[in-house]
Amino acid sequence: MKDLGALKYLLGIEVAMLKIGIFLSQRKYVTDLLTKIGMIGYIAYVVSVVSQFMHSPNVSHRNAIDWIFIYLKSATGKGLMFSKKGNLDVVGYTDIDWAGSITDRRSTSGYFTFVGGNLVTWRSKK
What we know:
This protein is an alpha+beta fold. It has a domain at 88-126. It contains 3 helices and 7 strands. The strands form 2 sheets. Strands 1-2-3-4 form a 4-stranded antiparallel β-sheet. A 3-stranded antiparallel β-sheet has the order 5-6-7, with no helix packed on it. The N and C termini lie far apart (47 Å). The model has no long low-confidence stretch (mean pLDDT 79). It comes from Prunus dulcis (Almond). This is Mitochondrial protein.
């Protein structure tokens, strides 16, 4: 077995070991994505709305996607900080709206999970 040194990058996530804790970021992944689409230079809701029109998009949907990438470009330095002194409590929330959509009477459900006060997973489904 070979020692590869301190962990710096894993599954698209940059790992920085600091004196005060561990910092996780997807800066490189987002930068690579923006480079790939030629754009190097509250998103969850916008993404969920735009994704409903994947099979028949129009110009307004393309404009919304452009704004999503602009947001991602401005947020590349953000990440999760897990403090050495903090706790790693896992807290989850969920909600459902049964047949609450006026247009199609479909239900909407969602959940999100925090670890040590950091949002680590979420999902919204209609």
